[in-house]
Write a structure and sequence with these properties.
Radius of gyration: 14 Å
Order of helices and strands: HEEEE
Distance between the termini: 17 Å
Strand content: over 45%
Number of strands: 4
Length: about 90
C-alpha cells in the first residue's frame, strides 16, 4: 500500500490502534518500560537505494514494544524529498 492522502494514513493508523486496543503510538524517543528491562536500540532501520531510502520504525505504545513496524519510503525528486507511507506491519 502506498498513500499520499493524509486522511487515508490517519484512518490506517487509527484502525491499527483500535484493532490492537492501543490508545496511541509513542513519539520517537519516548523512554521504554520493557520487562525484563533491556536496551532498545533497534528502533529505526534505514535502507538506502539509488532513488532515496526506506525507513522502518518499531512502534511502542505506553513505553511497551507493540510488535508493529511503520514502513516509509523517501524519494529524491528534483531537489526535494517525497515521503511515502507504506503501512504498519506486524514484526
Amino acid at each position: 500500500m502506498e498513500w499520499d492522502d493524509t486522511e487515508e494514513i490517519r484512518e490506517c493508523i487509527q484502525g491499527t490502534l483500535d484493532m490492537n486496543d492501543f490508545d496511541t503510538f509513542d513519539e520517537y524517543g519516548v523512554p521504554c518500560n520493557f520487562h525484563p528491562q533491556y536496551e532498545y536500540h533497534h528502533e529505526v532501520e534505514f535502507y538506502e537505494h539509488p532513488e532515496g531510502f526506506d525507513a522502518e520504525y518499531d512502534l511502542t505504545s505506553g513505553g511497551e514494544l507493540v510488535y508493529l513496524r511503520l514502513q516509509l519510503t523517501f524519494l529524491y525528486l528534483e531537489g526535494r524529498v517525497k515521503r511515502i507511507f507504506h503501512t504498519i506491519d506486524p514484526m
